[in-house]
Fold these 2 entries.
Entry 1:
Amino acid sequence: HSADAHRTDLMTITRFVLNEQSKHPESRGDFTILLSHIVLGCKFVCSAVSKAGLAKLIGLAGETNVQGEEQKKLDVLSNDVFIKALISSGRTCILVSEEDEEATFVEPSNRGKYCVVFDPLDGSSNIDCGVSIGTIFGIYMVDGHDPTIEDVLQPGKNMLAAGYCMYGSSCTLVLSTGTGVNGFTLDPSLGEFILTHPDIKIPKKGKIYSVNEGNAKNWDGPTTKYVEKCKFPKDGSSPKSLRYIGSMVADVHRTLLYGGIFLYPGDKKSPNGKLRVLYEVFPMSFLMEQAGGQAFTGKIRALDLVPKKLHERSPIFLGSYDDVEEIKALYAAEA
Ligand code: AHG
Ligand code: MN
Ligand code: MN
Ligand code: MN
């Protein structure tokens, strides 16, 4: 067909998910409806973030969250929008957010079969200086009975879908429903996410490592050895480049597209590191595996972890398959 058929054959995220759904004849479109509400939330946050500076939406909200972090106005606004959008979808029964100490149990009349875990605004420390931030989400199925907190404490390998939306130079939504990873870019003139990165595969090995070297004093042996190897390779190969943005969504998106490794290790001060299992580690690990990479906690495959608490943290090493293999070998040697 004509050269610019793709320009008229718009593959929106809704159409893409409907195509996926058609592969499951038994499905009644619930997932598609849930996703359309998550997409609505992302469009709202994208718009709020882009005019945050103008609309006095920067700075602190004056509260502190369960993480002990001072909440930014955008943290609170994004959280409110996602909670309301997810409840109004009528397809969720439990919601877990970084910004809420307790899980939200949707009242029975509006309850669906999905549990959504999410970080409404990731990289909050970067809001006021205009560096990319994002939203991260993961979706579990909860079977029929009255939902309890145990229904949320599932290993990441049980997730049906995971994704993130990055609010940067463009608004990019990266999603996996378990059969690979696809990237969509928001066309503001249409208000639609259009497929721009079909079937993303992470390079098998990368030339970039991404870690907050400011924590080096407290790192354990294997992490110290690995970073040393990146900087002073013994095999005559050239040193890796260091890229660290400080928003997990941005660091992971670059790792997914360019290859390399992202590390948030544990250390003497925080043995479980900083990143939260349910709504940061699991969704990003799910995406990395779906793109042909891997994700490791320093002990086990990240998706095999079974969380005991909602806001539990874990060290995480994720990215190109071969790069993560190297750090796994260093931890195995130390075990
Ligand atoms: P959040 O803004 O949702 O609390 O997450 C911030 C996280 C993550 O985005 C990033 O990778 C990490 O904090 C950066 O931590 P450091 O500043 O300690 O490097
Ligand atoms: Mn936070
Ligand atoms: Mn976060
Ligand atoms: Mn956050």
Entry 2:
Amino acid sequence: MSLEKVYDVPLEVAAGAHITEALYREMYERSIKDSDKFWSEQAERFVDWFKPWDKVQDCDFGTARIRWFEGGKLNVSYNCLDRHLAEKGDQVAIIWEGDDPDLDRTLTFRELHEQVCRFANVLKKHGVEKSDRVCIYLPMIPEAAVAMLACARIGAVHSIVFAGFSADALRDRILDADCRYVICADEGNRGGRTVPLKTNVDTALQSCPNVKTVIVVRNTGGTIDWDARSVWYHEELAEASPDCPPESMDAEDPLFILYTSGSTGKPKGVLHSTGGYLVYAAMTFQYVFDYRPGEIYWCTADVGWITGHSYTVYGPLCNGATTLMFEGIPTYPAPDRFWRVVEKHRVNIFYTAPTAIRALMAQGDNWLETTDRGSLRVLGSVGEPINPEAWEWYYHHVGRERCPIVDTWWQTETGGILITPLIGATRLKPGSATRPFFGIVPAIVDSQGNVLEGDCEGVLTITRSWPGQARSVFGSHQRFFETYFSAYPGKYFTGDGARRDADGYYWITGRVDDVLNVSGHRMGTAEIESALVLHDSVAEAAVVGYPHNIKGQGIYAYVTLVAGISPSAELEQELIQLVRKEIGPIATPDLIQWAPTLPKTRSGKIMRRILRKIAANEIRDLGDISTLADPGVVEEIIQNRANRS
Ligand code: WTA
């Protein structure tokens, strides 16, 4: 990267911010040198405990043992609701903005508390007990937050499945976590279209005999099938008592499972804790977004992803903040929708993904000009690297050079933000997530695991634990260990590459494994390949990512058909439909190339490196192909490549 641009922290921003440069340095140093004391203070500051912990931390990356605040007792819903009632009972907790721009509603902390208590009693009535897993398959409506908090209130473990996943993907996740209860809506709304959520649940449950009850939120009022397992959310809620004392949970009791994709096998159920997770989500929310009482905060992420967990629901509510939930998409009914919502609700802090910024940037500035975004104070970015062009547009055009951008790097497994600017402390460089948050010690290593110093590029690892770190993979601690702690012993392997510049700033360069990041959504190439080979006509498939202007990465599938079958447009459509059925629309391949064979080593391993280069049109620079069993294959694949330019 040549000629980096640097944006200084404006004086007026630094003056009002919670964390200044001097304070960042002082707190960061303390967080490392006097870690137990530092984290004790933060845990006390951000969370109310029923009983203090015995030990601040007990972590060993050698065995993947991660424990924080053991012996401490707390309840997440108490922290997000009850403790705010005295002073903020009538303050809005959730602003909901519908897919339809004419629909919105608000819930105060008191109203949200009452609904959560009632719904927690509904769950109990149906037999949900502490540590039972509850699957939530809901669109972006307040009931999603109610369901999460109600589970937390009684100690049940929620497993949210993004409402864009298919019935088959839902089934796999219900089975893996052995969920006995499902909470869904009749339908979701997205961009003026409905999503058949209850129908998907019905399909999924054909293979889930253990599910006892399906609680259905009436959202669109569309026609759905009904059976003996189904009950209506609103009917149950009306009958339930609003009195439900919060369960006293151990800090290390699990709070939720969230499935995420890795380079191999099926998605993993990443398991997060109660105490450490909440401390970390609440603390990062406060410091990173510099939240001030009374402000309106909007994170556009769906609750089906980790960003929605930590920064739409738990982080904001634990701090008594007003959080906006948006059901729709950035371009419906028109590409000014985000800015209209900002104007309508006077949003102060806005947190979204680069893919949305790029998509809106491509629509031109006219869509900005008719809206008033003067309420905005802080802008955020998450989910994938933000290219400097998109950063500049966000900064100059959306924020009119008044709002610092926090480019926050983190992962499902990290629970909260690990690398980020702090608005009063950090000079910004477009495209860099900048510096580590308190307590975070990154190390960039080479392929042999040697730690690189100074200005360098390699694989990003983290050398010591932080409270928000995932505790395990549901059902397989061994898989947790192998995935994250075996590649570089003693370090947490992030799966990302990174460069560190001479100022100590981190630049995330993207995944180093076979995980794609498509529109900010994480996807395993192996999952898409498994879907493709289910088709009778497919002998073999290899999926790679390629650069895509809007999505960041597009999905490129090389498909080899069984002998005697000819490629056709019809077959291509069948394969696309198959992937949508197995995983969901987000995994739809952008390009399919028919490949008579795939390039393999003599031992039969597909050489993805070459396929990635061909997909990216980097055909002049294929590197060493001498280890291929049949180097001639490459020329043929190049001739037939799908995105010629
Ligand atoms: C990528 C989302 C660059 C990264 C919170 C990571 C980013 C993966 C950034 C995790 C960022 C996330 N800059 N890359 N600011 N934020 N990523 O689990 O590759 O859905 O490993 O968590 O997204 O995706 P996940």
